[in-house]
Amino acid sequence: MKLTDAMLRNRPQAGKHFDGAGLFVLVTPAGQRYWRLKYRHAGKEKLLALGVYPEVGIKAARQLASDARQLLTAGIDPGAERKANKAQAVHDAVNTMRTVAGEWLDHQAARWTPRTRDSIRRSLELHIFPTLGARPLASITAKELTDTIRVIEAKGAGETAGRVLQRVKAIYRWATTHGRVQSNPMYDLRPSEELKPRDTKNRAALPERALPAFLAALDNYGGDPNTVNALRLLILVATRPGEVRGARWDEFDLAGALWVIPAERMKMRTEHRIPLSRQALAVLAAQQPLSGHGELVFPSPFYPGKAISDNTLNSALARMGYKGVATAAGFRSLFSTMANEAEWDADVIERQLAHLERNKVRAAYHRATYNAERARLMQWWADLLDQRRTGSNVIPLAQRSA
């Protein structure tokens, strides 16, 4: 006989009262009424709790029992399925976007400077955590993320939007690898497809034809000698401006004509060894009386314990009349263009620019064999600059070893 609300409200005697197809109410001596479903799976009899009457009424209990039977028909144990779902719910509750992002930041910390790590954390706190931070990582959809990213873009911060998207994608890759989510819903997101194209302007690089006049202007510049020597060395070694600005005397082997920039100061977090030309050594010799007593090669004239700023170099270029024509970062492009036009080996040029080879075998080969070739390249470059300073327009071809 089917159960009715009247029967259950009247609190039947203690024991099991069946509704049919394994569904029953278990009444305790105290009058509590618990829904249970008796079923068999893999040859074993089992019970599934379906709630307490009257919070779960007869209609709801029958629907829950029907859902469980459908799982059984599909070969799934409804009890085991419920336990798995509960465990997943607990897992998701503790693996929120904010929590997992924090673990990812800690895991990646050794790859970045503290300043870079703080900048990345701040971007997530500003743009991601307010809307998605408390959400389980597994519950966030690709559309929800792109909607959040487009809010950043709509404020005119397209570059920031692209960076934040890439960072969230990296969080999901890490989370997938480390078992925080079962799959990566952000895998197929591409900034180029989700964000509007942006007008990008390359950093101004001095044109080759302007090199003689620029070198003359630099020789005649009456500004701070620290700044002048920093620009001279920057042009001669073709590094990033920050690597020259932060140079320390203990990184240089002047007798061995070598500058070793430690990994923590490099963009790609890999040590970079730079052969020094005679002209580069001369610049450092000229700088020694100015800063050789301290740690920094190019200290700030205002804050001696700190390096000169990127703005210091670009401001000097502007005062020389090259605003919008040349930037400190643009000298790498000039070096690359002229060295390639002179038919130097492209791999040698790329190694000098600290553009890392992704193939590990090739990378090891490059480190082992290109040092001598790079030394010749940098001496060629320094000699070429001297020629341009005197007005020669001939670019000598690369000098190959026999």
Protein described:
Residues 357-366 and 393-402 have low confidence and may be disordered. The protein folds into 3 domains: 5-93, Double Stranded RNA Binding Domain, CATH 3.30.160; 97-194, Tyrosine recombinase, N-terminal domain (DNA polymerase, domain 1, Orthogonal Bundle), CATH 1.10.150.130; 208-389, hpI Integrase, Chain A. Helix 4 runs antiparallel to helix 5. The strands form 2 sheets. Strands 1-2-3-4 form a 4-stranded antiparallel beta sheet, with helices on one face. A 3-stranded antiparallel beta sheet has the order 5-6-7. By secondary structure, it is of the alpha+beta class. It has helices at residues 5-9, 58-73, 78-94, 97-108, 114-127, 129-132, 142-154, 158-177, 191-194, 211-220, 225-237, 241-245, 278-291, 310-322, 331-341, 346-352, 360-369, 371-389, and strands spanning 15-20, 23-27, 33-41, 44-53, 252-253, 258-261, 272-275. The protein contains 18 helices and 7 strands.
